[in-house]
Structures are given as C-alpha cells and as structure tokens.
Design brief:
2 domains; seven-stranded antiparallel sheet; 229 residues; Immunoglobulin-like; 18 strands
Length: 229
C-alpha cells in the first residue's frame, strides 16, 4: 500500500488507520501518529474449591476501552473527521505483515493545547461498539489511495487577477488531477495534467480543493486557502 506523508511534516512516516468505504473496501482514514491500543487483557478471577487447599484462576471480562489516536490538526484532516463524527464506522488497525484487528465504533476528536510555533495536534477518540476481531490476512480487504505526495501551501496570496501555479506529484504517478473553487467570484482554478493554476478574480478568499483520483483507488484531497488582494 502507498505510504502517505502528512502535509504537516515533510518527512512524516506516521501510521494510518483504515475505515470501510461505500464499496466495501477499507482505505486510509487519514494520516495519524499512532493507532490506538487494543482491548485489555482479561481480568483474572480467583477460583477456589471446598476441600482443595490450592487456589486457581479463570479469565474474567475483557475490557474494550476507548481508542485515543493522535493526529496533526489542519483543514484537510479536520474535514474528514467532521464528515464522520458521531457516525458508526468500521475500522481496521493494520500491521506491517497485513494481519489486522477489525472493530466498530463512533468517532469524535479534540484539538490539544499547542505551544506557539509548534505543529497543531489533536486526538481522535473512537468509542468501540464491538470487540477487536483478529484478521490473519487483510490484504484483499484493502484499497490503496491515490495520494498527493508533495508539499502544498495551505494559504497563498494573489494580487488582483494574477495567477499561482501548483505542480502536483502523485502516487501512482498516473493519477488524474482535478481542482475546484468554492467561490469562483473570488478565484477560479484549472488543472492541466499535474499542473494546477489558480487565478484571482476579485478581493476576498476562497478554498481550492485539489483531488487526485484513479480507477481502483480511493481519491485523495488537499485544500488551499486563496486570499486575493
């Protein structure tokens, strides 16, 4: 599967957590810096028998606590979390050898206190509705993502009707790039191959969404806030 670099770190090698999409496959939810713990070991209960001087133990109930997963807080990640917040989801925690743990739950998140000049971070909380289920081979359950691999500015400024070009790199390299503006009265955008050109129209701000897509892959999005002066 493609490794995904979070836009917040140029050399990020974080883990990912996968959730089930409409086509029945699991693909990356968003880049995260941890995957959350599995359920606890079963509680130990003492077992005694009348007339037997020895005490033995049996397994008690196994807890399935909330999973807390750190992530980098920015518009793209928050948009994904806002879309699924409070909605039941099915997840996979995937290990490097394609063994996995499957579980269901609902998502919430919060932003952490961040020192000035540091990267903004937050925590995803998944409240489980099922226990973790071991999957020996999850490879065929997964669908790769057509990721954007290069760094893209989160905020750009354009003077008047000037332009701003963004060259987009993807994995796989033949993914199709498209782009859209949420406020065409302020800025328009066009994609030509892997080049995205933003053009100012009038003073104000607009969010440009750049999408990388390929058949058989989940699409991937990056956004840019454009300020036209």
């Amino acid at each position: 599967m493609n490794s995904i670099e979070d836009r917040a770190l140029s050399e990020h090698r974080g883990s990912g957590i996968f959730n089930k999409k409409a086509n029945g496959k699991y693909s990356l939810l968003l880049p995260v810096t941890g995957t959350g713990e599995n359920g606890s070991a079963p509680a130990q209960l003492d077992k005694t028998a009348i007339g037997n001087p020895q005490s033995t133990s049996v397994e008690g109930r196994m807890e399935n606590p909330q999973k807390t997963i750190p992530f980098f807080a920015h518009r793209d990640n928050i948009a994904i979390l806002e879309d699924i917040k409070g909605k039941p989801q099915e997840f996979l925690r995937v290990l490097p050898d394609f063994t996995a743990y499957k579980f269901s739950g609902t998502v919430n998140y919060k932003l952490n206190n961040t020192d000035v000049g540091s990267l903004e971070q937050g925590e995803i909380t998944i409240t489980p509705s099922s226990k973790d289920e071991y999957v020996e081979n999850c490879y065929d359950l997964l669908e790769d993502t057509a990721v954007i691999t290069n760094s893209i500015e989160e905020v750009v400024e354009i003077e008047g009707t000037g332009t701003y070009d963004i060259n987009v790199s993807t994995n796989p390299s033949d993914a199709t790039i498209s782009a859209a503006s949420d406020t065409t009265g302020v800025a328009t955008v066009a994609a030509d191959g892997n080049k995205v050109t933003i053009t100012g129209v009038a003073a104000g701000s607009a969010i440009i969404t750049i999408t990388s897509a390929k058949t058989g892959y989940q699409s991937f999005k990056r956004t840019v806030l454009v300020v036209v002066k």
